[in-house]
Amino acid sequence: MRQPKNIRVDLAAMVDLAFLLVTFFMLTTTLSKSKAMPLAMPDDGPDRGQVSDKRTVTLCLGSNNKVMWYQGLAEKASPAVVDFTKAGLRKVLIENRD
Predict the structure, then answer these.
(1) What predicted TM-score, i.e. pTM, was given to this entire model?
(2) pLDDT value at position 20?
(3) Which domain holds residue 76?
(4) Less Cβ around it within 10 Å: N or C end of the chain?
């Protein structure tokens, strides 16, 4: 009776090829370019940074879809609480946009 021969496959060449392919694709791949939004800054002038209290609205996000908002400085304001509906935050922002 014959004994089966022990067959051994050398995979060293395949491993080398795999590393060469990985290295090739890593070096030739271009990553996506970051897309940034342009930022418009005000011109330099004597009144730069001066904003009327009536033109500022502060929004503080809270729990349970509630938003506390006030107009002007925090010391002089009386905060109100609204939600994210049409009759809530949207109405506040539309009324105070001027």
Answers:
(1) 0.47
(2) 95
(3) 54-95
(4) N
